[in-house]
Amino acid sequence: MIDIQLKKFFLRDPIKFAFEIYDSEIDYEFTEFKIANEGYLMIYRKINPITIMLYGENENTVTKLLSLIKEDKFILFIEPKWKYLLNFSNMKIYPEILMICKSPKVFRREDVRRLTVKDSDKIIELYGKDRGGFVVQMLRDNKTTAYGLFIDNKLVSAAYTWIETKDAGIIGGVFTREGFRNRGFASSVVSELAEDIVKRGKIASLYVREDNTSAIHVYKKIGFNEYWKRLWVSVNTDAKPL
């Protein structure tokens, strides 16, 4: 578990630090913190590749924290202003935008509904064995909220929450099957999921690649606005954001 001062720091911005709050409280057995001055590394080992969150307010702190990373393969999340300090070999950098929504415009359709464990086979068929199995397990553990759109009893578009805290629900896994894209299905799924999150007193949020202009357009249409930016840095791995 994290110390009280660090927890208080995260609660100053529970949207920006939602992953830190969730991982340190819910998945704490997989989470390790390394502290330097006013900054920290949060190393999360539950999934492969491991993920590392880095926060620091000055160059010396960030440089020190970067030197504490000993892993060979990982995904690093860091603020864009520290890009010039990154010198990992075989790294790929993807700028991301955190968007939030407090009052979604819902593009309601009768064929969109909340997903349950009874939809396990359809979820795995849509996302594949690994990602689909991950979503199904989260549904079983009551750790996610998922919505999907069905055509002829076939799941063709879906989205779910990566994590949910007291203050935020972070949406991820937005995916529409080939052959059903550009028909507004993702707008309906994401907007109904966002509505569900907001109705429970949370802020709906999501990360999107800065160069994914079509997705950003869809999210803005629903009511999402830019809140913060970060870099997804993939080191010695092919992993990249959607």
Automatic annotation (TrEMBL):
Residues 110-242 form the N-acetyltransferase domain. Keywords: Transferase. InterPro entries: Acyl_CoA_acyltransferase, GCN5-like_dom, GNAT_acetyltra_YdfB-like, GNAT_dom. It comes from the Archaea. GO terms for molecular function: acyltransferase activity, transferring groups other than amino-acyl groups. This is GNAT family N-acetyltransferase. It comes from Sulfurisphaera ohwakuensis.
